[in-house]
Amino acid sequence: MSETNNIGLGEGQTGDQPKGAVMRVASQYVKDLSFENPNAPISMQQAQEKPEIQLEVNLGARPMGADFPMGKDFYEVEMSISARASNRETKDLLYVVETNYAGLFLIQNIPEHSMGAALLVEAPRLLFPFARQVIAESVRGGGFTPLMLEPLDFAGMYRAQLEQRASQLKAAGQNSDGSEPPAGQA
């Protein structure tokens, strides 16, 4: 599956012109997948329609570099999702499902100040429906009702990450770009 987002194209421009920003999914894949049902078969008797779910999501992105065979404009975006389901009444663990789902993106002509949002908001937004399907099918294959994760607010996650980084830099006495503030303005 491939999707192209031509961002910022003005009137009269086409995606072939160098000024248009391009973000294209080159491929997507499961890097790691785990399903654990540590208390089977007892957990199967405790299964509920709506177990208590603890969800953890982590995002990462890296440039593939100039030596990458497909070209220097490729980035890998990886989404790690971990879900622990437990019985609401007994709190017994029902299952744990984890996946690292990634995509290889061709990104061109996106300004440096917008790369973080492209890699940690837009790319995960494109990958998430497929990662969610992997999770749902794994849980179903484990004998439980499929876990249908709600859509995630990747923009909110990105903003929270930026705010956390800014507060850490402020606490360390640095500006948001990592530079030292002028004397007397810390």
From TrEMBL:
Domain of life, per lineage: Bacteria
Gene3D superfamilies: SecB-like
Gene Ontology CC terms, in alphabetical order: cytoplasm
Keyword match Chaperone: yes
GO molecular function: unfolded protein binding
UniProt-listed Pfam families: SecB (PF02556)
GO biological process: protein folding; protein tetramerization; protein transport
Keyword Protein transport: yes
Localisation: Cytoplasm
Keywords attached to this entry: Chaperone, Cytoplasm, Protein transport, Translocation, Transport
Main subcellular location of this protein, as a coarse class: cytoplasm
Homology family: Belongs to the SecB family.
PANTHER family: PROTEIN-EXPORT PROTEIN SECB (PTHR36918:SF1), PTHR36918
Function: One of the proteins required for the normal export of preproteins out of the cell cytoplasm. It is a molecular chaperone that binds to a subset of precursor proteins, maintaining them in a translocation-competent state. It also specifically binds to its receptor SecA.
Oligomer status and interactors: Homotetramer, a dimer of dimers. One homotetramer interacts with 1 SecA dimer.
Name listed for the protein in its UniProt record: Protein-export protein SecB
Designated gene of the protein: secB
